[in-house]
Design goal:
The chain is mainly beta. Helix content is 13%, strand content 48%. The chain has a 14-stranded antiparallel sheet with strand order 8-7-6-5-4-3-2-1-14-13-12-11-10-9, with helices on one face. A hairpin with a 3-residue loop joins β2 and β3.
Length: 275
């Protein structure tokens, strides 16, 4: 009964863009996993000041619709400007309830192994939008526009892709920066592609090589920035599989671009929500 109630709540939250059966299918298909990506600098403008950049990204996703979803994310880069090197390390831990209505976040940013910033808080969906309560770096409360949290944003994307939708716009809240704003996302979904068994990451992605995928591009806009919604804060492209796993990352931050190659993938058992 709990499983059915949660699915119904999510269907209500996303009503208007997806059907209940399709939404439930996308949610149930999410695969608990740990994915590791090696980052490589593809291009950098003179304005970026970046001469070389290497890095690694580790993403771990666990949970279920009945118990909620947890993610841990670590993004480490070593940046060389030609005169000195800088090590950045972002560590993120989140929990999102299975009904998509509650979200907790902890984000720690380190520069050269020294804590630079910590953001901690929680948010929940209301009739009017989102209520956000921040406890670090300073206590604050924010009333924001109605938005998806990260997992429901992904589920919505998967469901729209399966239904053949190619272009749409929505909002996301993930607690980044000062947790005081939502970002507008513009999503472009390509045609379903047959299994991709080639590429530099074919060994790490062996469990995906027989599965179809959608090429996806997402642009993130910050209405609060100086450029408003004219220029994206960043863009990311990737191959998206029906189980929520991604590969062949392409990240565009304006002044520089990175690629992310899947180098390790471990799948975990799915929790049983029928009990």
């Amino acid at each position: 009964m709990r499983h059915l109630a949660v699915k119904t709540a999510i269907a209500a939250l996303l009503a208007g863009s997806t059907g209940t059966a399709a939404l439930a299918s996308s949610m149930a298909a999410l695969a608990p996993h740990r994915a590791v990506y090696d980052l490589e600098l593809k291009d950098a403008s003179d304005r970026s000041g970046i001469k070389q950049l290497t890095g690694r990204m580790v993403y771990e996703f666990n949970g279920s619709v009945c118990d909620g979803f947890t993610t841990t994310f670590r993004y480490v880069t070593k940046i060389d400007n030609g005169e000195a090197q800088r090590l950045t390390d972002q560590q993120t831990t989140t929990f999102e309830s299975g009904d998509g209505k509650n979200f907790e976040f902890l984000i720690k940013n380190f520069v050269d192994k020294t804590m630079d910033k910590e953001t901690r808080g929680k948010a929940h969906v209301t009739d009017k939008g989102l209520e956000v309560e921040v406890t670090k770096p300073v206590e604050a409360k924010h009333e924001l526009d109605k938005s998806f949290f990260p997992t429901t944003h992904l589920v919505d994307l998967l469901t729209r892709a399966e239904s053949g939708e190619k272009f749409y716009e929505t909002k996301i809240f993930d607690g980044t920066e000062d947790a005081d704003r939502t970002l507008t996302t513009t999503v472009i979904v390509g045609d379903r592609n047959k299994a991709a068994s080639e590429g530099e990451d074919k060994d790490a992605a062996a469990s995906l090589n027989k599965a179809d995928y959608f090429p996806v591009s997402i642009s993130y806009f910050d209405p609060e920035s100086e450029t408003g919604e004219e220029m994206p804060v960043y863009q990311i492209g990737f191959k998206l599989y029906q189980n929520g796993i991604t590969r062949d990352l392409q990240m565009d931050y304006g002044d520089f671009k990175l690629s992310g190659k899947l180098v390790d993938l471990k799948l975990y058992d799915r929790p049983d929500c029928s009990q």
